[in-house]
Amino acid sequence: MTSSHEFQTEPARLSDAERDRVLGVLREGAAQGKLSHDTFVHRMELALAARHSEELRALTADLDGESRWSQWVYGTVGRVSAFSVRLRRAWQAEKLPPLLLPEPGPHPLRIGRDPGNGLRLSHDTVSRMHAELSRQGSLWVLRDLGSTNGTTVNGSRVVGSVVVHDGDMVGFGRMNFRLTAR
């Protein structure tokens, strides 16, 4: 016979929502000046390593001063704001000129101002060797080549490489396109 102590009463893994809530409280606390930079960084590391809800609650115990009503209002406003950003990006994506994904080949498609690139973009904000697009298995991967003005995917700057899909908005400097399959 087994005792009840052998059964786990806590969830096996913290939910992403729990962790995100705590990270948000920590960011807000730092923005309001309630946490020093070092304390903020230390607590963020602890939040990411936490295994139980009690550990997360302890990290924000001195910061959770708002009522549930305030938290609900701020959370709702944040979600509505995020939705409007996604809606604006989707609206803009349809207006962008299409960038046709190339046929998969042994070499990546180089993108930049240099005449030797497979896709030459003659714009002042595009670097000579700006980025490259390659097929890796069944995925398309976009890699920034250390460009001056950056490469973006759906509004986020690419650091290193990122997987891209049909319909994504890609930017090279100030030139923006919507990726499209044939």
Automatic annotation (TrEMBL):
<dbReference type="Pfam" id="PF08044">
    <property type="entry name" value="DUF1707"/>
</dbReference>
<dbReference type="Pfam" id="PF00498">
    <property type="entry name" value="FHA"/>
</dbReference>
<protein>
    <submittedName>
        <fullName>DUF1707 and FHA domain-containing protein</fullName>
    </submittedName>
</protein>
<keyword id="KW-0597">Phosphoprotein</keyword>
<dbReference type="InterPro" id="IPR008984">
    <property type="entry name" value="SMAD_FHA_dom_sf"/>
</dbReference>
<feature type="domain" description="FHA">
    <location>
        <begin position="109"/>
        <end position="158"/>
    </location>
</feature>
<dbReference type="InterPro" id="IPR050923">
    <property type="entry name" value="Cell_Proc_Reg/RNA_Proc"/>
</dbReference>
<dbReference type="InterPro" id="IPR012551">
    <property type="entry name" value="DUF1707_SHOCT-like"/>
</dbReference>
<dbReference type="InterPro" id="IPR000253">
    <property type="entry name" value="FHA_dom"/>
</dbReference>
